[in-house]
Structure formats: structure tokens, C-alpha cells
Amino acid sequence: MTIHFKDGRNVFLDFREKAPLKSTPTMFQDAKGNLVPGLSTDSYLGVGVPGTVMGLDEALKKYGTLPLQRVIAPAIKLAKQGYVLEQGDVDFLDGSVKDFAKYPNVAAIFLDHGKPFVAGQRLVQPQLAHTLEQIAQGGTDAFYKGPIARKLVAASQANHGILSMQDFADYTVQWDKPVQCDYRGYTIVSAPPPSSGGVTVCMILKLVEPYPLGQWGYGSSKSLHYLVEAERRAFADRNTYLGDPAFVHNPIDQLLSANHLAKVRAGILPDKATPSSEIKGSLGQPEGTHTTHYSVIDKDGNAVAVTYTINYLFGIRQIAGDTGFFLNDEMDDLTGKPGVANGAGLVQGVVNQVEPGKRPLSSMTPTIVLRDGKPFLLTGSPGSATIISTTMESIVNVIDFGMNVQQAIDAPRMHHQWYPDVVYVEPGLLTPQTRQSLESMGYTFKMRKAIGDDEAILIDPRSGLREGASDPRTPAGLAAGY
Fold first, then answer.
1. What is the distance between the alpha carbons of residues 278 and 256, in angstroms, rounded to a whole number?
2. 451 vs 189, 349, 354, 387, CA distance in Å?
3. Which residues of the chain have pLDDT under 50?
4. Taking Cα atoms as reference points, which of 328, 317, 330, 337 lies closest to residue 361?
5. Annotated catalytic sites, by residue?
6. Residue 394's closest CA among 451, 311, 478, 443?
7. Tell me, what's the pLDDT at 140?
8. What residues bind L-glutamate, as annotated (predicted)?
9. Binding annotation
10. Which residues contact 359 (CB under 8 A, 6 or more apart)?
11. Rounded to whole angstroms, how far apart are CA atoms 105 and 151?
């Protein structure tokens, strides 16, 4: 959670999950040292200690103006009485129907007598309502020290997991200083480690800052070339150096220093793609797709950008007993084996290896862009590693290419993450001529139906008008005043 207060303060709240105390660096490998497919994404071993309940409650206690019972009441009502599914909701559910059917307690909620829901039907979640009622009455202790934690631990132990009551009792959230950088007269305020988002977005923006992207134009071969090359290098550093600051040193100042950025930028050739095999972490050896985002600004100019996740869509697709909520597979965001791609295709190093109590490195990028110290753009997205590209491109589309906020969100996107050495693009981004020009420079393209799902707010610095934009890639989203 990235927060900007009307008095100018910027703070960040980290409520990322933690690895259980019984975790080991090789827990997702077999006896021969090979990663076991699905172990970190489909089993109870993939479940990290949840942080969302404590995180949201901590923010409410410290800066909120309403009591917990009143804040949580609308969620309890929605769960208890249900809500009518839109087509966008059904589209999300449809992809996991086979997984839901494997577990009777999941099928009872998320299938309609064994069949997929259709738009117009009502989804009712009485067990989730009961869980939320316990939290409303008992606060975070009900979740981390009471009956909810006991049910989670019991289900984990019954399914070869390693969660313990001590894991829940030891869980903490943390207030941090956001990552900040300047870009063309604007201030970018975003997430610090264990999120990689803020550092990586700042690296990309600072690498391309000397180039006249606006003059070259959106979707031009020159703009795309330099953006991809900046992403390639920033992701190489992201995957090599960043991790949980409680375990590793994150060289943020060094990565974002003018001298270092100039050295990295000097390696970008004007007419040729650099193979990722030739790009390594730029500081030498280190010392040691399914997410939720929302942006909110109030009448006084206090701004909040929040990104949180259970990793894969519906996590491990299992629910502990009658708790009513899906369990995460956040452990897949740790490095199951250095040099081997995780579920997001990210190739990471020992800095992010599995260790007890470690928070996994994420790509979450809840971002607030300031102009003259006041909120100008709130942006962020789900999408695993593509979160970084999506958020970065929303900023560039507004600042460099002069788009309004809905145009900036609607515009076709691209993504490059070092490995695999391929540029993912959405339909409509490349003209035939641009694609041919870039392919002749050495780029390989792969089409994706959709990249990211940005939810953004733009505040006109002259009129103060707030413009909200909900990404059409997920039609169940909403931009609204309140």
C-alpha cells in the first residue's frame, strides 16, 4: 500500500506474505535437485503466511476514521446475501471449473450444483461471511491466533503442508519508506522491496528519460526499441539483486544513481537488439498474473494505491475447511531453484531463495505520481511480472505521449522481462512496418491477448478534475466517484 498524504508525507505499508518457519531452500526440488512441477503452485507447500488481514487492519488503525466493524460490514453483506455475477466475473471463474470440482468444499460455493455459473446468477458465500464476522468481532487475533488460524493449520497438516500456529503468531506487517525518483519533472512514488516494482519502474523510466519518446511517438520503432532495451536491463537487475530487505541488502541507491544508469544506458545500441544472454546483473555478483489493484483519492487529496494478491488466480484453488476463502500460492514467488524459471517465467537468483520467514519478491507496483508535490496520477495493475510494464507504460503514455487517462489504459501494451528473450505484445500495437523494422534489429515477438489490468486516476493540475479509468481488459472493473 502506497500512501500520499495531503501534507506531503509519503509512506508504504508492506503486508506481503512470509514463508513458513519450516521452509527450506530445496523444498520444491526432488532428490536429484529438479523442480517438481506444481509443488509451489498447486499444493499446501505453496501457501505463505497470509498478510492481507493484518495489513488492511493496520492501515485502518493508524490512519482510518471508521471502526473495523463498520468498514467490514459491506463485505459481510455481499458475502452473506451474494451478488449478481457479470460476464467478466464468470470469465474468471470459468478457467478454474475443473479445479473447483476436485474439492467438495470449493465446489459447493463456486459451482452451481456441479455446473459453471453463468452471468446473471447470484454467488453467495456464507462461510466467508462467517469468517469476516469473526474478524469484525475479534480483529486480527481472530485470524492469526484464533479459530481461523487453527483451521488453516489443521488443513495444511492434513495435506502435507508446513504451516504452524507459530507462523501465524509471528506474522508482522511493516511501515517502510517508498521508492522515489524523478521523471521529466514528475515524482514517482512506489513500492520498495520486497516488491521489485518501484525500483524496476524507476530504472526503466530513468534509462529512457534522455530520449525524446514523445517526439518519436507511441508505438514507433524507436520508442519501442529503447523501452524494451531499458526493460531488459532493469529486469536483469531486478532478478539478480532485489529481495526481502530483512534477509538481503537491496542496492537501490546504486541501481538508481546517475553514474550507474549512464553506464547501463551506454550499452543500448541505437539500431540493434541486445540478446538477453549478453546482459547480466549490472553490479556484478550479488551479496548473498493474477492480482488485485485499486487506486483511491479523497476530497482532501489524500491518495492510496493498493496492490495485493494470492498469486495465481484463486491461489492453490483450495479452501481450508469451512473458512470460505482461497489459499495463496505465494511461495512460488520465491526462487525454487536459482536460474530456473518460476510460474511467471522469471529467472531469479539466490537473493530470493526460499528461507524461513522470508517475504517473496513481488512485482507489485502501487504507484502515485506527483506534480509539484500533489497527486497527478494513481496507477497500478495485476499481472505478475507484467505489472511493472503495465504501470510504467501508463505513466509514459500520459507524460510522454500526451494521452488522457482512459487512452493511456486502453492503449495496446508490450512486455519484456529479460528471460525469456521475447517481447510480448498485444494486438494493435505493431504496424506491419514497425514489426518488420524491429525484427530486422533482432527482436522476437509473441502475441498475448491481454497484458495487465490497470486501474488509474488522473487529477488535472489546472482544474482539479478527477478522471478515473478502468481497464477494459477486465470488464468487471469500475471507475467511480464516491
1. 21
2. 23, 25, 28, 8
3. 285-288
4. 330
5. 291
6. 451
7. 96
8. 16, 309-311, 333, 362-363, 384
9. 16, 309-311, 333, 362-363, 384
10. 14, 16, 17, 18, 19, 194, 244, 246
11. 14
Residue recorded with cell 478457467: 95
Other Cβ atoms within 10 Å of 335 Cβ, number: 25
Q: Which three-class secondary structure state does DSSP give residue 347?
A: coil
Q: Tell the residue number behind the cell numbers 498524504, with chain if given.
A: 5
In whole angstroms, what is the distance from residue 268 CA to residue 30 CA? 40
pLDDT tens track for 189-226: 999 999 999 999 999 999 999 999 999 999 999 999 99
The CATH 1.10.246.130 domain(s) of the chain lie at 176-289+363-470
Spell out the CATH class of 176-289+363-470: mainly alpha
Residue 299 has a CB neighbour count (10 Å cut-off) of: 8
Question: What pLDDT, in 10s, does the model give residues 391-423?
Answer: 999 999 999 999 999 999 999 999 999 989 999
Specify binding-site residues for L-glutamate. Answer: 16, 309-311, 333, 362-363, 384
